[in-house]
Amino acid sequence: MEVNGFHCDGEGCAEEQEEEPKALRRPRSKTEASCSIMATPGADSAAAGGSALREQRMSKSTPAMLRLDSLKKNRPPFPWFGMDIGGTLVKLVYFEPKDITAEEEQEEVDSLKSIRRYLTSHTAYGKTGIRDVHLELSDLTLWGRKGNLHFIRFPTHELPAFLQMGRDKHFSSLHTTLCATGGGAFKYEDGFRTMANLQLLKLDELECLIKGVLYIDSVVSSGPPECYYFEHPTDPERCEQKAYNLENPYPLLLVNIGSGVSILAVYSKDNYKRVTGTSLGGGTFLGLCCLLTGCSTFEEALAMATEGESTHVDKLVKDIYGGDYERFGLPGWAVASSFGSMMCKEKRDSVSKEDLARATLVTITNNIGSITRMCALNENIERVVFVGNFLRVNTLSMKLLAYALDYWSKGQLKALFLQHEGYFGAVGALLELPNPS
Amino acid sequence: AHLKSFPWFGMDIGGTLVKLVYFEPKDITAEEEQEEVENLKSIRRYLTSNTAYGKTGVRDVHLELHNLTICGRTGNLHFIRFPTAAMHRFIQMGRDKHFSSLHTTLCATGGGAYKFENDFRTMADLELLKLDELDCLIQGLLYIDSVGFNGHPECYYFENPSDTQNCIKRPCCLDNLFPMLLVNIGSGVSILAVYAKDDYKRVTGTSLGGGTFLGLCCLLTGCETFEEALEMASKGDSTNVDKLVKDIYGGDYQRFGLQGSAVASSFGHMMSKEKRESISKEDLARATLVTITNNIGSIARMCAVNEKIERVVFVGNFLRINTVSTKLLAYAMDFWSKGQLRALFLEHEGYFGAVGAFLELLKSSDDA
């Protein structure tokens, strides 16, 4: 039986916990309960100390004993992946162990080593795969191992190429569980099986999303704060990103903006409901932009939107009223009819692609904001967290959401954002690894 | 009674269309006719002997209310519309026909009543009596519903909205209109909760309305009018353009009750170059229509649930000759609420604001 790079037993790992930065020791009993194998401050430190002892133990264990040991402690064999196969993007998180001993390395199978090297020595894979290095979480302790958590994405339409790679690298021989969430976990289940002989552990995307959000927020201890908000979002001079403490997050409205949108009301770690959704999401923005401007990628669409002026495209309240619609508190600058000026040929001929891209962005974003506000009001929740890859490199939308929520709720609602945006589903999937289905 | 002098008009100057209601008296005595000033006679003849005015004005003859008795006079109520873009030409015409010499009050609502107030004054020496559009909408709706549509019900709904074969339009006998959620779909959308004749609030609105549908269609398909856009939409298939739940899940998303046929991401396929090259203009028009309509339906439903109102009445000219949208709204309300909500529609669709303004004219005469 091959040892897939796993070595440590529970007591031996206790020493590592003492080396943890203090921030990780924040008491977060709820997340600890869900990630029961995660480092618990002070828990096993009473056990025999000293790495020397650990090595002594190591040299006496056979691979089979180690595996048995790990199974007893419910730790999964490497590699550790979490996968979220969405409508547009596949999000992959990969845990790279940094505490591999010489012995472990020696026993490590080639395919595992090759996977580790391939993933960590590149930041781009093929033509479309990308590793978001700026999101990497270093020195993370997970299930007794220390390492880096990597965040990788590629378009869902490249999944066949990914499966091919899995087959070529004999991933299935590693007998590891592949935890996957998102619609694609269901849609491509057979594909994984037939093309790469891999069995997926399918998980619900919203379950994973919530677990992932709670986990990441609890472990981020250095670098930019995971959760933040915007102060003075529409004032370019004064606009500031500020940290927000999500320690007592409940109740929370979680708005996941991917290809489409899901809105969840989260009351506690295990108590949430899907309030509603809207089909006007990130996929709509990109699809419409491609049609209206001829662009091909999300980045191009955003670049154009940054340069454009949506008021050339939209019909504002002042275009209809000549000013404010005072009776119902609608300021003249509010949009009365998105793309409303485009029914006029002259106006169509006078707008630029950039204006159209901007209007598309503003329309989709404001619609999401409006629906979100209605939900927050009905569910009586003041905190709204926006996640999902529509917001990736998209400060325009984030600021718009921040402003709109604040303005239309007269300061009652607060828009919050998270650094790891669209990766929470994949993280949640990773966290399910120790639990067999 | 000191009645307001003829002509009797009500005007709703919206973001896209001007809606005009005109009362044509049919009980004019020989004496009255003799005393009638020339320009008044000319206005009456011009309006009632044409069904089209200039290049863009249209009289919706099928909506005409016959033998209406109001404030002691009997006549026909006519429904006329023209693009707001032609407003200055209209004001010009008012000047040319010496409308101001008739010393009549011109009751106007809609944003344009405020925007064009000065133009009316300076160009045609006419003073507008400005009224709120939502007040007028409700008063107009209640009035038309109470007088009926030439003996037929004004209000209707669809039976079996989910069944394309057996979906039938049925008249609706509303014993009690209240409370109702009123969704006015014009260039943009306003959603009102109406509890009684004089008790309502504007719940919310959305800027994704009829203007969005038409604007996007013009951009995406090269069409130029609402009628062209609808024509294209009736022939297209939006599922070629939208990404459905089954495109992402391979089937239903059972956990949260989302059928495979539900749209997950509107226009979601259009990020793919291949798909963009394989769809037609008709598909794009259809997808635009479906996207806007479903978004309105979704928001309306949320409001109905929150306000605890079961009746949702949809009005506004977005629904004019637009059975695709009316049926879609009927279906969506029924389906997503599991039969709790009912979508209702009214024959005079986009004219209620103008009717409300018209009523205000007569109301002010009662006070005199």
What secondary-structure arrangement, pairings included, does this model have?
The complex is a heterodimer of chains A (437) and B (368).
Chain A: H1 10-18, H2 29-34, H3 51-60, H4 63-72, E1 80-85, E2 89-97, H5 102-107, H6 110-121, E3 124-125, E4 129-131, E5 137-142, E6 145-155, H7 159-168, E7 178-181, H8 183-187, H9 189-196, E8 200-203, H10 205-219, E9 227-231, E10 240-243, E11 252-257, E12 261-268, E13 271-278, H11 282-293, H12 298-307, E14 315-316, H13 317-321, E15 335-337, H14 345-350, H15 353-379, E16 383-387, H16 395-408, E17 414-418, H17 424-431
Chain B: E1 8-13, E2 17-25, H1 30-35, H2 38-49, E3 52-53, E4 57-59, E5 65-70, E6 73-83, H3 87-96, E7 106-109, H4 111-115, H5 117-124, E8 128-130, H6 133-147, E9 155-159, E10 168-171, E11 180-185, E12 189-196, E13 199-206, H7 210-221, H8 226-235, E14 243-244, H9 245-249, E15 263-265, H10 273-278, H11 281-307, E16 311-315, H12 323-336, E17 342-346, H13 352-367
Helix pairs in contact in B: 3-5, 6-13, 7-11, 8-11, 11-12
Explain the overall architecture.
In chain A, the strands form 3 sheets. In chain A, strands 1, 2, 3, 4, 5, 6, 7 and 8 form an 8-stranded mixed sheet that branches. With 437 residues, chain A is α+β, with helices and mostly antiparallel strands. Chain A folds into 3 domains: 75-219 and 425-432, Nucleotidyltransferase, domain 5, CATH 3.30.420.510; 227-308 and 352-418, Nucleotidyltransferase, domain 5; 314-350, no CATH class. Mean pLDDT of chain A is 84; it is low at 1-60. Chain A has helices at 10-18, 29-34, 51-60, 63-72, 102-107, 110-121, 159-168, 183-187, 189-196, 205-219, 282-293, 298-307, 317-321, 345-350, 353-379, 395-408, 424-431; strands at 80-85, 89-97, 124-125, 129-131, 137-142, 145-155, 178-181, 200-203, 227-231, 240-243, 252-257, 261-268, 271-278, 315-316, 335-337, 383-387, 414-418. Chain A has 17 helices and 17 strands. By secondary structure, chain B is α+β, with helices and mostly antiparallel strands. In chain B, strands 1, 2, 3, 4, 5, 6, 7 and 8 form an 8-stranded mixed sheet that branches. In chain B, strands 10-9-17-16-11-12-13 form a 7-stranded mixed sheet, with helices on both faces. A two-stranded antiparallel sheet of chain B has the order 14-15. Chain B has helices at 30-35, 38-49, 87-96, 111-115, 117-124, 133-147, 210-221, 226-235, 245-249, 273-278, 281-307, 323-336, 352-367, and strands at 8-13, 17-25, 52-53, 57-59, 65-70, 73-83, 106-109, 128-130, 155-159, 168-171, 180-185, 189-196, 199-206, 243-244, 263-265, 311-315, 342-346. Chain B folds into 3 domains: 8-136 and 352-364, Nucleotidyltransferase, domain 5, CATH 3.30.420; 155-237 and 280-346, ATPase, nucleotide binding domain (Nucleotidyltransferase, domain 5, 2-Layer Sandwich), CATH 3.30.420; 242-278, no CATH class. In chain B, helix 6 crosses helix 13 (352-367), helix 8 (226-235) packs across helix 11 (281-307) and helix 11 crosses helix 12 (323-336). In chain B, 48% of the residues are buried. Chain B is globular, with a radius of gyration of 22 Å. In chain B, strand 11 (180-185) and strand 12 form a beta hairpin. Chain B is built from 13 helices and 17 strands. Chain B: Pathway: Cofactor biosynthesis; coenzyme A biosynthesis; CoA from (R)-pantothenate: step 1/5. Chain B: It is an enzyme of class 2 (transferase). Chain B: Homodimer. Chain B: It comes from Sinocyclocheilus grahami (Dianchi golden-line fish). Chain B: One of its GO terms (molecular function) is pantothenate kinase activity.
